[in-house]
User: What shape does this take?
Amino acid sequence: MRLSKMHLKTLREVPAEAEIPSHILMLRTGMIRKLASGVYGFMSLGWRTIRKIEGIVREEMDAAGSQEIHMSAVQPAELWQESGRWDAYGPELWRIKDRHGREFCLGPTHEEIFTDIVRNDVSSYRQLPMNLYQIQTKYRDEARPRFGLMRSREFIMKDAYSFDRDDEGLDQSYRDMYAAYEKIFTRCGLDFRPVEADNGAIGGSNSHEFTAISEVGESEIAYCEHCSMAATVERAECRDAEAQDDMDMLPMEEVHTPGTKTIEEVADFLGMDQEQTMKALLFVTYDNEGKEAGYVAAFVRGDRELNMTKLVNALGIPEHAIEFADEEKMGVATGCVGGFTGPVGLHDCTIVVDSELPGLKNLCAGACKEDHHLKNVNYGRDYEGDIVTDIKVLKEGDPCPVCGAPIKHARGIEVGQVFKLGTKYSESMNAYYKDENMKDHPIVMGCYGIGVTRTMAAIIEQHHDENGIIWPMSVAPYHVIITVMKPDDEIQAGVAEKIYDGLLAGGAEVLLDDRKERPGVKFKDADLLGIPIRITVGRGAADGIIEYKMRRDADKTEMTVEEGIRKALETIDEEK
Ligand code: ATP
Ligand code: MG
Assistant: This one.
């Protein structure tokens, strides 16, 4: 491609709306074009990289025995009502109506559609196992679309679904997909980590997220350097503090604690450790119609943090069906008092108690009375929970739940996720097969997603410097850029054409910067676009000499035209 003919609009300045490098650089290189909040189009360079990523995904999925199909983004509401997700998915589901008033959604994912395919087409064990995938546009009306392609409302996903006879079959399919994901993200040049994850709105029993390590990522992961434990913080189990079995329960005592609304304040005021206190977090829940369904009070030790994912899992409700309560309003119904809520005296709400609290003795808690706390509150004697389970965050420095070593945290970008669904969809949607004895069984399913557009953003996050992108060869929109210093100079133009033809003949993807721009502008653009190999044709052209430089390295080498072509083709072959 000749740059003089190419549609290319690069920006010198940083666009105001962009905060993170991938978003800034995609806008500055003109790879993407914003149409609305969280809705982007792709220009030539951007689309070429998307197609490269898709190509890698396709090769590895095909190699793993999955078959590509392509379903519509428009999905009838009936299928979602059958699975129960029409209500459960909440406002992220982009709902539309046709002219007859029939309801549809723009698919955020395709479990229902693929389950519908197999329930119609698969009847016998002989047809299993089966694995189908597609690379397709997804829609999620995200509450906070941001960071460009990182969290958009329209995005490209590869989604795959496996169908097996039994759990052993699913285990094998899951391992195959996991292995394919490791290959895909490695080929994309990502530094990533598979971590145990929560199943979220998709449902099922077991899951891993593939997380590209990055400061700007929205996933927080907890991992251990001494053993293999690695999980999203949402999911990570947290060890309970040791139970204080040998401690006696002291008589409960009300104390005046004026103005001590936070745990810090009350612990300071009473001269105790935060570990000797418990704190309340108060919520209101909603039903499917969006009406208030009830109140929830969650209790964790004073120095802990509440884990919202664990809480909604314990309550068995979707994340969008709960929010912080208006404490005054909740107080009228339940007796809670903002800043002074404890489990004693609370009524008419679901009390969720973190699993370690029953083992801890003589804690200090709010008294459900303005400016008062209770000392020596004990589980069983003074209060009970409707639900007792682990609802706390595994923080940095906490003991690893597997080996006890101090836990580390890191941030990352979730680029893919694999799930064991089990029979959730096959049972609710009636997808059964007959075994050798004509007995019916629900098909055992798994599902596997990769955010193609988010992967592109993650690659840029990990591969850039202050001058621009540094594409790994495998996903670069072009392999080589030939920068001609003086395109009007006949010798330079001739040499550049010769290199261009030689590289194209060798199968390389090449940009020829033949624009009538100053060399400085061209070098800046070459760095910004991040093309892995730059060949500069300048004064040396008369002697058949060019300058060869990798975008990722600082040094340049002079060599002959022939050497340059050979070296470029070899490098592309090794790295693509
Ligand atoms: P997140 O937790 O970031 O909202 P998710 O867990 O809901 O994502 P999945 O349902 O697992 O997402 O979807 C599969 C993949 O699709 C994700 O791993 C991610 O790479 C990508 N993805 C999900 N939501 C978005 C989005 N809003 N924009 C871009 N990519 C997305
Ligand atoms: Mg996910």
About this structure: Residues 209, 414, 417 surround magnesium ion (ligand 2) (CB under 6 Å).
